[in-house]
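User: I'm writing a tutorial on reading structure tokens. Could you give me a worked example: one chain, its sequence, then its tokens, then a sentence or two explaining what the tokens reveal?
Assistant: Sure. Here is the example chain.
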Amino acid sequence: MDDRKQMKRMHVYISGRVQGVFFRAYTRETAQSLNLTGWVRNLSDGRVEAVFEGKEENVSAMLDWCKKGPPYAVVHDVDAKEEPLTGEFQDFRITRS
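And here are its predicted structure tokens:
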């Protein structure tokens, strides 16, 4: 069976009180625990943007986590769009805009 068929890529924008509450650090930690690759960063408009690649069930678990976020975060909305899988990432990291 082709493992890529069970893989998924999601591009996510999270809005609410998601900056200044260690959202990126917790996102990285959670993504790494789910064996996901990609990145997360703060946006100048106050949102957090992230790309997750990995097994479909792990990406779904990550999206569920994003809807709650870490302690002290208040998530208002998660806008998630599926994109074609690229496999371009080796790990999960925090980046800058």
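What the tokens reveal: The helical segments are 23-33, 56-68. Strands lie at 7-17, 37-42, 48-55, 74-83, 92-94.
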